[in-house]
Amino acid sequence: MANYTAADIKALREATGAGMMDVKKALDEAEGDRTKATEILRVKGLKGVTKREGRSASNGLVRAHVENGVGTLVEVNCETDFVAKNPKFGELADKVLAQAVAVEATDAESLLASELDGKSVKEVLDEANAGIGEKIEVRRVARVTGEKVVSYLHKTNPDLPAQIGVLVATTGGDEQVARDIAMHIAAFSPSVLTREEIDAETVANERRIAEDTAREEGKPEQALPKIVEGRVNGFFKENVLLDQAFAKDAKKTVGQVAKEAGAEVIGFARFKVGV
């Protein structure tokens, strides 16, 4: 029987983020030597990187950085919430975010290809895969610029790191209204800023569905145009940020709230882990 304790298992799990059984097997093989066990976990992890490529990484966290009117948001994913809350994973996410800021990344592909400590970010992640024993990936990156940019991070579970992240860019107004709008975006997940950003084909399809539904419901022919228009407007109010009812005052739209505060929302990004 290998000479190690429950404290050794706990310490190695915290250091590597590896699972309980993997840690026990590594300690058995290393005869209780934690340094050797760490090396074993890394070697076995590297061998398993390719196998993990097809696995789902739906846990993780979001990180944000804002400075001088530039906001960067990254989503870094893993397989389990155990790894998501591991400090080593958090440190890796911070490193990824710092790199995204440094290279002014606007998408995951360019970030992964960039050089960090003499390696590509992709290679850095592969090494982390090896040490932790889970698939780790950068799923999304966003960069938002404006006169004022604020970030908001929200925890959906108090035991986990932030899983919803928002950036909002505004001109005029003050930081408080921008922060209120960021919190609104976190809660109501708009897909676009303005109606013009929704392509004509999507709008036409919504209009067709609204008309077909109204006919199926037996609505009178003369009432169809008004009913269809109302339902299409409802679609806009659900998906368009400036048309949404404001979280703090549902009698006003987000656009109205911004205007009354002397502000204009010019851009936003919202990530929710795994969605």
UniProtKB/TrEMBL annotation:
SUPFAM superfamilies: Elongation factor Ts (EF-Ts), dimerisation domain, UBA-like
Purpose of the protein: Associates with the EF-Tu.GDP complex and induces the exchange of GDP to GTP. It remains bound to the aminoacyl-tRNA.EF-Tu.GTP complex up to the GTP hydrolysis stage on the ribosome.
Protein name: Elongation factor Ts
Subcellular location: Cytoplasm
NCBIfam families cross-referenced by the UniProt entry: tsf
Source organism per UniProt: Ornithinimicrobium tianjinense
Chain spans, region Involved in Mg(2+) ion dislocation from EF-Tu: 80-83
GO-annotated molecular function: translation elongation factor activity
GO cellular component: cytoplasm
